[in-house]
Design a protein that fits this description.
The chain has 166 residues and is mostly helical. Helix content is 67%, strand content 2%. The longest helix is centred in the last third of the chain and has 58 residues, at 106-163.
Length: 166
């Protein structure tokens, strides 16, 4: 993912626009100087970062024919998009899949699934065992500190009783 300054410069250059052409396409609503500042990412005189308004991003998204939401994400107005979820079985069964520039046959895909399934199960089993081992270690540490705290309280009580005059 590009940061906003890089993205804006890349979009403008990909369309072959100059800064002044973009200004004309925005009907002067965004000046060429401001576009240059946005592409640099900071104010030249102060060195402070520049944060364009959502309105300016909307105008530029229309000029560059680029999704407005993506510009908002690059500027930090929206959280990063969640990665798409793909099910490996669906990809292998319903799509053309290439490996080393060769289209995999149905049998290749089945073989691949037969190889991957036990490997993934074993990996999950190891992860579960690791989580279980870490849980046991944490529990043991807590038990150790609980016992130590009880022992300390008992010794403090007994030392107080020794000091109490009879």
């Amino acid at each position: 993912m590009y940061k906003l300054p890089e993205l804006l410069k890349r979009l403008r250059r990909a369309r072959g626009y100059s800064l002044r052409q973009v200004e004309q396409l925005t009907n002067g609503m965004v000046t060429h100087g401001y576009i240059h500042t946005l592409e640099r990412g900071y104010e030249h005189q102060t060195g402070k970062p520049v944060m364009p308004s959502p309105r300016v991003l909307k105008i530029l998204s229309e000029v560059y024919d680029y999704p407005y939401e993506e510009l908002l994400r690059a500027a930090g107005y929206l959280p990063p998009a969640a990665p798409e979820t793909f099910h490996l079985e669906d990809i292998l069964k319903h799509n053309y899949v290439y490996f080393e520039n060769r289209l995999l046959t149905r049998q290749d895909k089945e073989d691949l699934l037969n190889i991957l399934s036990p490997a993934i199960r074993a990996m999950r089993k190891r992860e579960k065992a690791t989580r279980h081992r870490l849980h046991r270690q944490a529990t043991a540490r807590i038990d150790y500190y609980d016992r130590a705290a009880r022992r300390d309280r008992r010794t403090r009580r007994s030392s107080r009783q020794d000091r109490v005059p009879k």
